[in-house]
Amino acid sequence: MGERSAGDVRTAEGAAEIGRRVLRLRTERGFTQRQLAEPAYTAAYVSTLESGKVRPSEAALRHLAERLGVSYEELTTGRDPRDAIRLRAGLTDARKALATGDAEEAAGRFQELMAEAERLGLRDERATALVGLGDCVLETGELAAARAHYEAAERLLADEPLPRRVPAIRGRAVVHFLSGELRYSCYLLENAIDELNASGLHDPNALLLLYTAAIAPYMDMGAHARAARSAELALALAPSVDDPGLIARMHRGVARTLIAEGRTAEADASLAKAQELYEQLRIHTDLAHCHWMRGYVHAQDGNLERAERELRIARDMLASKRAALYTVQVEVELADVLRRRGRTAEAEALLLPLLRRPPAGGADSADGEDSVDGSAPDGSAAGEVAAEGGIADGGIAEGGIAGLTAEHGAVHAGGAHRLLGLIAEERGDARTAEEHYRAALALLERTGAAGDLADLCRLLGDLLRRGGRVEAAMDAYRRGLGHRAAPGTTTLGPAPAEPPGV
């Protein structure tokens, strides 16, 4: 249940507090009970109210507030209405600081505002500060802390209409997505969409936020049809939304679906619209994401020089913002471009610090050990390496750089192992290549990233076949076909309902 203020007239405690407040204000102004009560009420009624023995109606409280020269809100809550206005202005400034400055500095501002909102009993402002804190630590890659802040905001707003809770729900879904829990991320978003549509709460801002957030986990699960439909619904909602930040985020999401369909020119145009809005709003982290995605688009088109340039811009922007998790994810994609440009040593040097504990060298596979379950051919379980993302010490790589783990950027951790496998294979080191492929397989199977899994099974199968291990290769191919057969449909429930009139 959400919190009620101590001055809530619906409770005996709240009525008593209001009674004490009326008594104090009346005494300060030199009014008798009769003078305060007339002409609508009696002195006896005011006396009963001041002793906390009656729960006054809204009409009575508005009458008393007018006579006492205070606002209705100040009489019922004890707060100066200017406090809420001042706090909301502070929250807006903190949000701007997060967009344009340092996330840690913005977090300090949100923390101060949250404490003040709690002291004043301003529940909505406190919840807004909690969501802001969640966004700050999400940017720096502290996923557990981000989830705790979003959950606390949801608890505070439990009694509020769903649209008010959507930013916290969306934040929690993003945390689960970045943690590799793609199915649960989709569940949270779809459940909120269904509840909004079923209850008739057709809030365009809330729906746009949810549909846009659903695109990334859908894409990574291989549920491309759902991702495309979410993008279509988001585009249909856009004319009803007046928040340019939401519109820019929507264009980024739509670009992902266009890339998957091979429509790279349209994807780049969508990203250009988002980039223009972010530049106008001076939202640096989201602008960096646009450079990141444009780099990916150019890589898909084979324009590797432009891809490298865009990805380096994105990496530098994110690093300057101390957005550690996003920075290392960009570095994985930059390493892929470097490898494709023939600069494998640079690519490997970029990847290894992100996977601080790479797969240990294992013995050649013996007979009967050709499994495709993520375990290493020597029985040492490369899957155990993958289970920790190849990184020890809580996912912090050398030099204090946040690394990739199964709980911290799992999809990109799998991608890093895949790239290291390709590099090892190109230099003729089949054993190390296999270990990296199996480590990637163990990571990605935990996330349900169907498209990536199918490709990885193909790479592993080809490697095993070339080594003469035909049965193991066949197992890998079969597993890949299973992931490719119906991506995103074996683990997701029915698609969420669509909003009326869209």
Describe the protein's architecture and organization.
The protein is mainly α. It has helices at residues 12-29, 33-37, 43-50, 58-68, 72-77, 81-100, 103-120, 123-139, 143-156, 162-178, 182-198, 204-221, 224-237, 244-260, 264-281, 284-301, 304-320, 324-340, 344-351, 382-387, 410-426, 430-447, 450-466, 470-485. The longest helix has 20 residues, at 81-100. The protein is elongated and about 100 Å long.
Rg, rounded, reads 28 Å
Alpha plus pi helix count: 24
Average pLDDT score:
83
The biggest beta sheet is recorded as: none
- Report the end-to-end length measured between terminal Cα atoms: 33 Å
Elements, N to C (H/E): HHHHHHHHHHHHHHHHHHHHHHHH
What is the oligomer described by this structure?
single chain
Q: Tell me the helix content.
A: over 70%
Low-confidence stretches: 1-6, 357-369, 374-401, 486-491
The counted number of beta strands is: 0
Beta-strand fraction estimate: under 5%
Q: What coarse outline follows from CA principal-axis ratios?
A: elongated
Based on secondary structure, the structural category is mainly alpha
